């Protein structure tokens, strides 16, 4: 749909997951270059002032030589059950909604949110929420494509239609750095952590990044400073609204009206969607 919109001469704000595989990423990048329109990815934390400040200070050496990013998502999603064939809602164009995917009959446990857990349309938690935090780690570490990816996990909690791991660990290895992803879709991480976030480790300290703040710690674990966002954002509910949505979309509109680069142009951020499917 993003490519069709570009072909129609429209600027595009494309939500994640914007692809199932790296080839689809390249098709969208090629279309953006051909039609010369603005394409903004819906990864709101790229517009967080606190995260941008942290990345700037990391590059200036505030925590020394950075070597590892830890990304995680912690939730307690319930069972999606076993879907039953039902009539398509009058408000939904089921054929259009399925896009290029193989056609399937409508079931009562797919729309509007649980499509994330079906392989025909979704990409599982790692490409649903992991794509946000893994991108923040890549941004902070200054890396692109990994040399090696290791992934393990499984579906452990419910006997239902969910088709992806509900608990997963992934490691992305680069020349001298690594990123890890811990995804707990069903059963929260213990000891307790915020619902989502990223930690960046350096030779002189550690920085934690969320949609709402940036915290700097010494190697001894003592908090040195906190930088808060001016407006709070939700983190783990399925709506996820908040200040960063407004800021990120405003950046998209300003790029159209005034020119210049978006906070996450598709060309700049495409590697994050190259990395994630490998997990």
Automatic annotation (TrEMBL):
Enzyme Commission code(s) on record: 1.1.1.18
The keyword Calcium is assigned to this record: no
Annotated SUPFAM superfamilies: Glyceraldehyde-3-phosphate dehydrogenase-like, C-terminal domain (SSF55347), NAD(P)-binding Rossmann-fold domains (SSF51735)
Domain Gfo/Idh/MocA-like oxidoreductase N-terminal: 1-42
Entry keyword set: Oxidoreductase
GO molecular function term, any single one: nucleotide binding
InterPro entries the record matches: Gfo/Idh/MocA-like_OxRdtase_C (IPR004104), Gfo/Idh/MocA-like_OxRdtase_N (IPR000683), Gfo/Idh/MocA_oxidrdct_glycsds (IPR050463), NAD(P)-bd_dom_sf (IPR036291)
Annotated Gfo/Idh/MocA-like oxidoreductase C-terminal domain residues: 94-262
Enzyme class: oxidoreductase
Name by which UniProt lists this protein: Myo-inositol 2-dehydrogenase
């Amino acid at each position: 749909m993003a490519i069709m919109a570009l072909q129609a001469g429209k600027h595009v704000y494309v939500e994640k997951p914007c692809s199932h595989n790296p080839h689809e990423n390249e098709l969208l990048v090629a279309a953006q270059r051909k039609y010369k329109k603005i394409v903004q990815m819906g990864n709101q934390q790229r517009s967080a002032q606190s995260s941008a400040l942290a990345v700037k200070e990391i590059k200036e050496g505030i925590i020394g030589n950075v070597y590892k990013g830890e990304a995680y998502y912690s939730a307690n999603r319930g069972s999606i059950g076993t879907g039953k064939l039902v009539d398509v809602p009058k408000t939904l164009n089921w054929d259009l909604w399925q896009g290029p995917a193989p056609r399937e009959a409508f079931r009562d446990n797919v729309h509007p949110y649980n499509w994330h857990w079906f392989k025909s349309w979704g990409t599982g938690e790692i490409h649903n929420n992991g794509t946000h935090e893994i991108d923040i780690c890549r941004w902070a570490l200054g890396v692109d494509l990994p040399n090696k990816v290791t992934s393990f996990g499984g579906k452990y909690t419910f006997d239902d239609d969910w088709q992806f791991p509900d608990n997963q660990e992934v490691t992305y290895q680069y020349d001298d750095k690594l990123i890890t992803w811990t995804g707990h879709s069903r059963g929260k991480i213990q000891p307790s952590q915020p619902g989502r976030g990223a930690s960046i480790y350096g030779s002189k300290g550690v920085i934690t990044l969320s949609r709402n703040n940036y915290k700097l710690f010494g190697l001894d674990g003592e908090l040195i400073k906190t930088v808060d966002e001016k407006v709070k954002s939700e983190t783990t509910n399925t709506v996820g609204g908040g200040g960063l949505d407004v800021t990120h979309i405003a950046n998209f509109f300003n790029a159209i009206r005034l020119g210049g680069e978006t906070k996450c142009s598709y060309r700049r951020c495409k590697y994050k969607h190259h990395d994630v499917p490998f997990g």
